[in-house]
């Protein structure tokens, strides 16, 4: 099982998402939990690496398992706010960054971990 952690960053009622062309979906900033790293440390590190901001984790949003292709993942998502910096794409993995209202999410191709929490994301 692969353990992941990420940030559900919300500002002015909109959720920050990144478009990943190789997977053809939108996802939140996040990534793999490394050895000797907690999921919360991963979430903070990944926001810095992927979009160049310092985040403050406000509270857990969701932890659960999902399957993508033939692999099982455990994802920890945290509600977070930006403490410092302006989000900009910092990794070639991503093609676009956007802010979306909950009502717009149904029109997007979302990552599997976000699909499973879509009803909750619509309300954020």
Can you offer a commentary on this structure?
This protein is α+β, with helices and mostly antiparallel strands. The protein has a single domain (about 1-124), classed as Nucleoside Triphosphate Pyrophosphohydrolase, CATH 3.90.79. Helix content is about 20%, strand content about 50%. The chain has three helices and seven strands, in the order ββββαβββαα. It has helices at about 40-50, 110-115, 120-124; strands spanning about 1-10, 15-20, 25, 30, 55-70, 70-85, 95-100. Strands 1, 2, 3, 4, 5, 6 and 7 form a seven-stranded mixed beta sheet that branches. A hairpin with a 2-residue loop joins β5 and β6. It starts with a strand and ends with a helix.
Topology:
Elements: E1 2-11, E2 14-20, E3 25-27, E4 30-32, H1 39-51, E5 54-68, E6 71-84, E7 94-100, H2 112-115, H3 118-123
Parallel strand pairs: 1-6
Antiparallel strand pairs: 1-2, 1-4, 2-3, 2-7, 5-6
């Amino acid at each position: 099982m692969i353990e992941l952690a990420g940030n559900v960053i919300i500002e002015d009622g909109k959720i920050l998402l990144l478009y990943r062309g190789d997977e053809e979906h939108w996802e939140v900033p996040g990534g793999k939990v490394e050895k000797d790293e907690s999921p919360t440390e991963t979430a903070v590190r990944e926001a810095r690496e992927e979009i160049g901001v310092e985040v403050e984790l406000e509270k857990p949003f969701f932890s659960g398992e999902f399957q993508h292709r033939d692999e099982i993942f455990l994802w920890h998502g945290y509600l977070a706010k930006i403490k410092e910096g302006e989000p900009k794409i910092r990794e070639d993995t991503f093609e676009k960054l956007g802010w979306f209202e909950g009502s717009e999410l149904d029109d997007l191709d979302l990552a599997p971990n976000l699909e499973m929490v879509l009803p909750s994301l619509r309300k954020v």
